[in-house]
Description:
The chain is of the alpha+beta class. It has a single domain, classed as Cytochrome Bc1 Complex, Chain D, domain 2. It is 51% helix and 13% strand. A hairpin with a 5-residue loop joins strand 5 and strand 6. It is extended, with a radius of gyration of 24 Å. The two termini are 48 Å apart. The site of heme C has 21 residues, from helix 2 and helix 7.
Amino acid sequence: MRKSLLFFVLMLPSLALASGGTVPLMNANTDVSDNASLQSGAKTFVNYCMGCHSLHFMRYQRLAKDLDIPEDLVKENLIVGDKKIGETMTIAMQKGDAVKWFGVQPPDLSLTARSRGSDWIYTYLMTFYVDESRPTGMNNLVFKDVGMPHVLWELQGLQKPVYETITDSEGNEHHVIERLEPVGEVSQAQQTEYRRTVRDLVNFLEYAGEPAQLQRKSLGWKVMLFLFFFFLVAYALKKEYWKDVH
Ligand code: HEC
């Protein structure tokens, strides 16, 4: 009884996923200790995302320090407009305009990696596909009828859906998307490059969701190392004290 209960509890997350009929997420393979990847992600974010999305909690100065980018390079390459290095990565887009253009306000992305998860954002950026019925001409596998255009399409190339027909238990047929395939020729090199660009971008968003994790992780190692040496000392002491007792 107890075993089956445990099994049920362990299975809960996957049951919840299964009931939503969701697309399996791809693995973003992020690593926030990879500084080159974070730098490349920050660049892509500023060039391709910051027209619409802000990072309210991220200061340019902190970015410069954490990612080891000299402040003058940050000023030259990452700061848009006349912002100062001490300011946060907010944008000037007016709410009314955004709603007129996209139907919704593009959300601030500070906490998205934590709320949605890195794998979700990765899959989201990988699975835009051509859908003529949508105002942007695009749809998305993990965000149905999304208001955001596929801003990275020139890097990825376009994808179109391949459908399959499945019959449900009542005998009704449904057309569902089986997979996406490139429209036209997309070289292996371009696909690999796109995966890397998106991985770096997601890595950056994961870092931006909790900048302190860089320090926390390096502090964690130091604490473990300290505990290890402390253990050796304590053990040697214990042996010394008990020597006379035995
Ligand atoms: C032209 C404006 C525009 C640009 C540029 C843009 N987005 Fe968006 N994005 C939107 C809009 C609008 C939404 C809201 C979509 C909706 O709710 O239907 C959105 C939603 C999202 C979401 C989902 C957020 C959530 O939790 O619902 C993510 C993640 C995202 N964008 C990431 C990015 C990234 C990464 C880039 C840069 C590669 C980018 N966006 C560039 C307009 C934009």
